[in-house]
Amino acid sequence: MFEKVKELLVEELSVEEDQVTPEAELVNDLGINSLELADLVMLCEERFGITIDDEDAQKFVTVGDVAEYLSDKAE
């Protein structure tokens, strides 16, 4: 799942591929702003056919958080 999230970040939000690690913080390390975070949530919802509550999205601090959340939802 991490690789799929990484792909989204690189392709859709123009994040440098070598910066994307499970520990990388979306805002502090990757420079994603609140609008881009909303885009990421929408992209994940579309790509994985799920709904992500705003409450849950606010818990996305690292790339790993997003991947873990999506893995849990996919089960």
Task: Please explain how this structure is put together.
The protein has 75 residues and is mostly helical. The protein has four helices and no strands. It has one domain: ACP-like (Non-ribosomal Peptide Synthetase Peptidyl Carrier Protein, Chain A, Orthogonal Bundle). It is globular and about 30 Å long. The termini are close together.
Summary of the model, kept short:
The protein is mostly helical and 75 residues long.
Feature tags:
57% helix, 0% strand, single chain, 4 helices, mainly alpha, 75 residues, Non-ribosomal Peptide Synthetase Peptidyl Carrier Protein, Chain A
List the helices and strands and how they pair.
Blueprint: H1 2-13, H2 34-48, H3 54-57, H4 63-74
Helix pairs in contact: 1-2, 1-4
- What's the main sheet like? none
Unreliable runs:
none
- Rg, Cα atoms, Å: 11 Å
Structural class call reads: mainly alpha
**Which fold name is given in CATH as the topology?**
Non-ribosomal Peptide Synthetase Peptidyl Carrier Protein, Chain A
Q: Domains counted in the coordinates: how many?
A: 1
